Structure formats: structure tokens, C-alpha cells
Amino acid sequence: MKSCCEGLEKQFDAKWAARELRRFRRRGPTRSTRLLVEAIAREDPKGATLLDIGGGVGAVQHLLIESGVRHAIDVDISRPYVEAARDEAERRGTIGRMRFLVADFLDVAETLEAADIVTLDRVICCYPEVEPLVRASAAHADRWLGLVYPRSSAPFRAAAAAANLIMFLRRSRFRAHVHDTSSVDSLIRSLGFEVRSVVRTLAWQVFLYEAVDQQV
């Protein structure tokens, strides 16, 4: 996993983070992120805790805190992204309700407590091996597990291959990965979750799962 993480750090650098933060402040979250947040907000997460894996500039964290989440932990391999999320939390006056950690989640998972909500917004497409990430994430989700990742149809696999070729030619070590939807879904169900909602955009799919033993 080391080369993958090195690629992530270089891909999502300070320039990229600053641009994403400006966009978030001007226009709000991307459509897929908004759909994820709305799905969780419908479950009434007031007082819940959040673990946001690969949180970027913190869009999920900031918006769910507005929806009543009590405390959020942001884990991201990119230091510039974590700093951007922290800056936004300070601007919003919610810094005391958040914890920030610069790390690959898989490297620190055993040191982190579980949360009511675990989110991976456009994260599993950054990992070549999806099973360890999904298993560790699900193990930390006491109630809800939310994911945004690319649709796995042939056109999107071709698009990812083209993007990876460009990154290879630019000598970037980062690669995008399109994981099979049915395999990811089957794995999560096998870990004790059921689908609560699913929405698809042209390129992305937004899943919210709930732990079976939490369902009424």
C-alpha cells in the first residue's frame, strides 16, 4: 500500500486542496457528496459521532455537524486536505467538535474508536485492494456506513484506464480504481449491513448501509 499512499499525497497537494476549499465555500459540496449527506441527514443523526475516512476538505464533516452530529474524526493521507478541513472548521466555529489525523486509515484503524457513522466519499476508488479498506471501515461503523464510488460499467472502467495512462505519462504514482459494485455490496452485506438507500448519478453511486442489529 505504500506506493499507493505516496501517489495520493502527491496527487492531492496544497494547490489541489486550496482549489477544492474555494469551490466548497463558493458552491457547496459536489452533487454526490450532497446526496450522501442528505441520505444520512434523513436518518436523524443528532448526537451521533462520525468517522470520515479520506475526508478531503471536510465537506461531509462540516455539513453533518450542521445536521446535528456531535463529534467528527477526519482521517486523510493528505496533510494539505486535513489543514484545509481544519481551516474551514475554525471559520465555522466547530473546531472543538472535530479531531484531525493525517494518516492512511488502514495504518491507524486499530487505534481509532468506532463511530455511529463511517463515511468514505470517493475513497475506495483510490485503493487497489478494496476488501481490507471496506472491512476495516465496516468494523468501525456502529450504525451507518456511507460510500460514494464510481459506477463499475464498461465506460467508466475505460475512462479510468485512460486517466491512469495520462497519470503514468506524467510520472504520477496515483491510480484510480473502479471496483465491481456487486462485489463491494456483497462484502458489506456479509459484514452485517443492509442497504438503506442508493442513488446513482452519471458517474457516481451513493450507498448508505445500516447495521442489521440496529434496524427496527
CATH superfamily membership: Vaccinia Virus protein VP39
CATH topology: Rossmann fold
Task: Please report the total strand number as a whole number.
Answer: 7
CATH architecture: 3-Layer(aba) Sandwich
Number of helices, where a helix is a run of at least 4 consecutive DSSP H or I residues: 9
Question: Which key phrases capture this entry?
Answer:
216 residues, alpha/beta, Rossmann fold, 7-stranded mixed sheet, 45% helix
What does this protein structure show overall?
This protein has 216 residues and is of the alpha/beta class. It has nine helices and seven strands; from the N terminus they run H-H-H-E-H-E-H-E-H-E-H-E-H-H-E-E. Strand 2, helix 5 and strand 3 (98-102) form a beta-alpha-beta unit.
Chain-wise SSE layout:
Blueprint: H1 2-11, H2 14-27, H3 31-41, E1 49-53, H4 59-66, E2 71-76, H5 79-92, E3 98-102, H6 105-108, E4 115-121, H7 130-139, E5 141-150, H8 154-169, H9 181-190, E6 193-200, E7 204-211
Parallel strand pairs: 1-2, 1-4, 2-3, 4-5
Antiparallel strand pairs: 5-7, 6-7
Entry summary:
With 216 residues, this protein is an alpha/beta fold.
